[in-house]
């Protein structure tokens, strides 16, 4: 390697390490990770995303990343960027807990909230590959401990795993779960589905035939949690560990609820819209499949890369090409495939899923074809606004085709 290039790379590395050591509230943490190998332009891209944007189109462009976090009262965030089907860089900012000022590290765990759903879908698709069931089976053929009520609405078309994962099953429970405070008695999945105490929610009802319309349903994915445990005969968190998390090297991820003590010391705490600590470090989610994953952006980037590599064929680590394509192929009603939302942005097609639990906001966005993407996780209720701006900065820095305009001649 030429001497000049060695000197330049050395200066860049020293600069990044020096910046990451600064002991201020919203400063970068001490660990800039390049998990899949070195990159000669990662440090440059990091600085570009962190800095005020050029040209400055007003709005938020004039803010540094740290100023952006301060404006939206977001104590901490963590980012992983994907380039060429690899993790290009990952980095943490700010604090995991405003009461202790513990810094966000690259391996700090966040609640993935609804990004839990597509990860669950991958486990189901692996079982489909193994011939355990079909996406178009009547889900009641899989269930033993609970059943979708029979009615005129399901007379011609039964509720299926495909309809549940794509939010077209006819389930009408709406958005999300509030979670439960630590130390409280957690409802079982069947109690949640039936709206029975100690669940605080109403029952999951089916109000239209499958595939008639799209309505987001966390309860529908909870039904698939029961289906997977009934089919495999193991606890749900162990199914996910064996079928997805461990094979993909997602070593900082778990569906265990409550979070084990061995991991709790590395977990970010929940904060409200003003950046204040909540009255508990986080809520618990017995709705594991739709809302219960603890993970990091780096681990979710590994998950996204598995989808990207598998759909290019012939196979990824967990999924074959044909099976992986179910995760990015909308079924024809609504924006969802089996797990992911799929949409066109500029001239590119992307698969994505956002998440919002009590005190946490996050997003995963990845290109269907071109091998790039980003995962951002925050521990504040206004984190979604920070995420939106960072995604736009990543798209500009990496020249994503979200920015392209068609030219017709």
List strands and helices in order, with pairings.
Elements (H helix, E strand, L loop, with lengths): L2 H18 L21 H9 L14 H7 L4 E8 L2 E12 L4 E2 L6 E2 L4 H14 L31 H5 L23 H6 L23 H15 L3 H10 L15 H4 L23 H4 L2 E2 L1 H16 L8 H4 L16 E5 L2 E10 L2 E8 L5 E6 L4 H15 L12
Antiparallel strand pairs: 1-2, 1-9, 2-3, 4-5, 6-7, 7-8, 8-9
Explain what this protein looks like in three dimensions.
The protein is α+β, with helices and mostly antiparallel strands and 409 residues long. It is 31% helix and 13% strand. Strands 3-2-1-9-8-7-6 form a 7-stranded antiparallel sheet, sandwiched between helices. Strands 4-5 form a two-stranded antiparallel ribbon. A hairpin with a 5-residue loop joins strand 8 (360-367) and strand 9 (373-378). The longest helix is centred in the N-terminal third of the chain and has 18 residues, at 3-20. The protein is globular. The model is unreliable at 1-30 (pLDDT under 50).
Strand order of the largest sheet: 3-2-1-9-8-7-6
Broad structural category = alpha+beta
Q: Tell me about the largest β-sheet.
A: 7 strands, antiparallel
- How many angstroms separate the termini? 46 Å
What is the averaged pLDDT score?
90
What is the tally of beta strands? 9
The low-pLDDT segments are 1-30
Number of helices: 13
Instruction: Report strand %.
Output: 5-15%
For the CA atoms, what is the radius of gyration? 21 Å
Helix content: 25-40%
What is the approximate shape? globular
SSE succession: HHHEEEEHHHHHHHEHHEEEEH
Would you summarize the structure shown here?
By secondary structure, the protein is α+β, with helices and mostly antiparallel strands. It has helices spanning 3-20, 42-50, 65-71, 116-129, 161-165, 189-194, 218-232, 236-245, 261-264, 288-291, 297-312, 321-324, 383-397; strands at 76-83, 86-97, 102-103, 110-111, 294-295, 341-345, 348-357, 360-367, 373-378. The radius of gyration is 21 Å and the shape is globular.
